[in-house]
Design brief:
The protein is an all-alpha fold. It has one domain. The protein is 72% helix and 0% strand. The protein is globular. The termini are far apart.
Length: 208
Amino acid sequence: MKKAIGVTAALLVIGGVVWAMRGPSVDPEVLRVEAMADQLFNNREGMTDEQRRQAWGDFRQTIEQLPDETRQQLRQRREAQMNKRMEEELTKFFALSPQERTKELDKRIDQMEQWRKRWEQERNRPQTANRDRGGREGNRSAGGDRGRDGGGRERWSNMSGADRNQRRQEYLSRTTATQRGMRDEYSRQMRERRQQRGLPPGRGGRWG
């Protein structure tokens, strides 16, 4: 009897170790949305601007329709992946020579300016060009607050002081001092390089 109990206990311990290594279960909906995001990202170059807008609009609507718990898990996994990718890219960046860093900054700035111009063109499009998307826009409004980001959270400009402080605390809890230091230094060098090129400060964004 004691031997059987011992075997059972050992199996439970092993099972716990395996579960810990695998981590908590992931909502199948989270995996489905992540697969959609990967597919959209991989196919983006072959899309027209209109196809890209429609695809990402539908994707945002899919996220807005998820339950709060699922959106939270999706956001946490996305932030963990982003933090890991950022740390890897910044580590490579700071390993470059000063001249190579400048080239990388210029490459990033050129991309940002292209995106900014595209965004301005989209913003200035006549309203009649968007009438065919009226139904989808209405669904987006019904599916979630337009003042929220793709993960269902309020945008920074719409937050109260308490909510902003909570977001800062979340940022501190999910990043290390080293990660924050690298991001701050990257942002400083980015602002400095933009100034050298006669460009205004960026709007934030990655590591901003």
